[in-house]
Each structure stands twice: as structure tokens, then as C-alpha cells.
Amino acid sequence: MTKNWLSKLKAEFPAKAVRTDEASLQANAGDAWMAEHRPEAVVFPANAKQVAQLAAFCHRHEVPLTPRGAGRGYVGGAVPVHGGVVANLARLNKILEIHAEDGIAVVQPAVVTGDLQDAVEAKGLFYPPDPASLKECSIGGNVATNAGGPRCVKYGVTRHYILGLQVALMNGDLVRVGGRTHKNKQGFDLVGLFVGSEGMLGLVTEITVRLLPRPQARAVLRAGFKSMKACAAAVQGVLQAGLLPSSLEIADRYTLAASRRHLGDNLVPDGEACLLVELDGQKSTVAAEAIHLSKVIRKLGGLDIRSAVSQRDRDRVWALRREMSNSLKAGGFTKLNEDITVPRSRLVDLIDFSEKLMKKHRLEIASFGHAGDGNIHVNLMIDPTDTTIRQRADRALDELFNQVLAWGGVITGEHGVGLAKKRWWPQATSKELRALHQAVKTTLDPKGMLNPGKFVDVKR
């Protein structure tokens, strides 16, 4: 790093934009994962031009620069492991445009996902991606990790709704990739390059998202099952019945027990596992499909089947799912949230394997998540201060990831690699694929100053 870079930073940017007080440094030291590291400074850019200016400054003075959104990431992606500067984009928080005729919205990265959904639905439009933390997470963070959520089974992930980006590169350039049209084959798919890049290739300063017409009706069905294996098998049964739900979620015995303690019995169905299915579409279609779905689930072994149609009743059902993480945390353990994804045909195998891991390594494991696309959150519940338990958890994770990869799955479906899964990155990828990642990273960040210390670093 250049000598006296901090004083030069303060001289180059407005005083209110640069913070070095203890509270600000600590508040920007970590995310929702367990790791943290204090930066030397936090900069709050007011606009895209200042973001680009900050990137150029850090590139020029060889100062590590870590982008930060809402800090809701689960893998340590926003942890400034090499110190330096955190670029906190909280001031870039405006919805710039909602254009119903074009079917797009233009937003800044710090817009909260749930706020965007509310704003577009008020205009009869629909932004489908819905991570569980939608009331807290930001669109910029969703872009960085290619976030998913329950609706992925029908609507896909964040990448499928990003039409254009403005990105600040480390050389100080502001570049626009993509645009506002729903089709665009004008050059390489550079939008896809930046979506999911975990803040290592550029700093996103503006996002153009694709919107759909708002579904006229929704219905949610919740059912219990005697076992998690029976519940996982029912997922395939629902799809084989010709139904395409917007959401298809499952949860196991441990998760439901924690939810009963935290939320009460009224929200949790009878049984050792839970299936939650949401349908959306035209009113007449949803009504008919809901009746059919209820019959299908009953034949598949569903217990305590309940349907919810009104907004209030649907919200009550979804409260169970959206509070599962908090319910587990309320037990006092640390949750190692592994968002592995397997081919959907392996769901029952995954549940069976997780149960064997739990017995073999004497761990509590809570499994729940997006069964409709094979993305299950296998949560190891540990006391991180207990070295023995942590060692058992590490061995269990080695076995879990080995098996997932052997099935043709991936070690992360929506949270990203970050720090949490960095040690398994070489195992999950080929030498040639890692070299390709390295080449892209080196081209856009030749000095390796942007979000350094994560799973792709520039070797100097």
C-alpha cells in the first residue's frame, strides 16, 4: 500500500463520506457469517461517480477494497479480510424508475429487495426473486451472489431478472453492460459475468431488472409428513402430477421442533416433516389447481393439510418458512448454513445421507429449503467455542460436499463461496476452470485489490 494512503483518501473525498471511527469500522467488519476483520476506513459514496473514483484510488494506491451492501451474506463475502477500505453503498438506495410499458425497473444497489417488490406490485407488476431475508437484503447483494429464494422452482434466480448493470471497474471506468430490452445479443453476456461474481470483478452502481405482470391470485398449501424422506419424495410427486408451483419447500423434524418452540404450535403442521407449496396465476386456474394439489398431496401421504388463499392467511403460513433460520438460532447454537444443491432426483438420497451424517458425527443437523430446485439448506448446529464439535462438523462437511459433488451437485446454490466455502473451491472445480476464473479476475483487477482474500485471488 502507498505510504500515508489514509490521509490521501480523506483529502480526496468529502469528510462526511469517509469514516474511521471505531463504531463504523466494527459495523463494517463482518456479515451474517461468523468471521470478521476491521478495515482501516469505510467510505460511503454518494453516487456512481464517487464509487468509480474510490475504485481508481484503491487501484492506484494498492489499497484493498471490499464492497458492502446490507451485510446479510452467509459466507463472509463482505468481510474485509485484508483490511483497507470498505465501500459501503448504503447511500445508493433509490428506485430510479419503474416503467410498466417496458416491463423494467431501474434501481440503485442498496434498495431493499422487499421494498422493490412492494413498489412494483403497487403498479400491477411483479419482481419474482424472493430470498428469505428480502426485508433486509439489498438488490446489490442479490446481484453479487445471484440470490435465489423459494420462487426459484418456477421463476428462476436473480440472474434471470437482470437486464442491465452499471459497473465501476478498478481502473475508474464506469461501464454499462446489457440494457433495458428483454432480449439482447449485442456482444458477450457481460451481465451474466458480473451477476454472481461476489464483488470481485467490479462494483455495481445501478441495476435494471426485468418485471412480469403481477399474478392475479396465489394459494399456499401446507402439509405435514411422517418422515423427511416421504416429504422429499412428495416433491417429485407434485411435479409428476403436472403441477408447476411457484414455490416448493420442505423442512425436517429438527427445524419444525425449533419452530414450535420459537413460533408456537399453530403455525407448524403435525408430523416429522413439512411440505409448503405455493401456486400463482389466474384466479380460476389457481382455485382449480389448489383443489387438485390438495388431493395429490393427500395421496402422497400428506397430514394436517391446510390451504391459505387470503393475503393474511398466506403470510401466516409463510411466516413459518421465513422464520426457520431465526427459530434455529433461538436455540443458542451457531448455524453453519450449507446451501448445497443436488440434481432433483437425488433429494431423497440427500435427506438419507444427512441423517446418516448426523448419527455418525453426533451432530444436530437441520435441513430445510428449496426442494423444487434441489437447493436444500443443510444446517449444522454447533457451539463454535467447542473445538471437538467444530472438528466433527468439519469432517461432516467434508463428507457432505464430497457426496454432493459425486452426485453432480454444487457446494453452493445461492449464498456464494465467499470465505465459508473457500477451502472446498479447489475440490469443486477443475484446474482449467480455476485458471479461467483467474484470467477473468486478473483482467479486471490486475493488482488484486477488489474484495481480496476470497476464493479467486490475483497472484503477484
Strand residue content: 15-25%
> Strand tally, please?
18
Q: Taking strands numbered 1, 2, ... along the chain, how are they ordered across the largest sheet?
A: 15-12-14-13-17-18-16
Rg value: 22 Å
**Low-confidence regions:** none
What is the average per-residue confidence, as pLDDT, rounded to a whole number? 95
**Main sheet overview:** 7 strands, antiparallel
Shape type: globular
Account of the protein in words:
This protein is of the alpha+beta class. The chain has 16 helices and 18 strands. The chain has a seven-stranded antiparallel β-sheet with strand order 15-12-14-13-17-18-16, with helices on both faces. Strands 5-6-10-8-9 form a five-stranded antiparallel β-sheet. A four-stranded mixed β-sheet has the order 1-2-4-3, covered by helices on one side. The longest helix has 20 residues, at 387-406. The model has no long low-confidence stretch (mean pLDDT 95).
Question: Could you give a short description of this structure?
Answer:
With 460 residues, this protein is an alpha+beta fold.
Sequence-ordered SSE layout with sheet pairings:
Blueprint: H1 5-12, E1 18-19, H2 22-27, E2 41-43, H3 48-61, E3 65-68, E4 85-88, E5 95-99, E6 104-107, H4 113-121, E7 125-126, H5 139-145, H6 152-155, E8 162-168, E9 174-178, H7 190-194, E10 203-210, E11 212-213, E12 217-225, H8 228-240, E13 247-251, H9 253-263, E14 273-281, H10 283-299, E15 303-308, H11 311-322, H12 324-329, E16 334-338, H13 347-361, E17 364-370, E18 375-382, H14 387-406, H15 425-428, H16 431-444
Helix pairs in contact: 8-13, 13-14
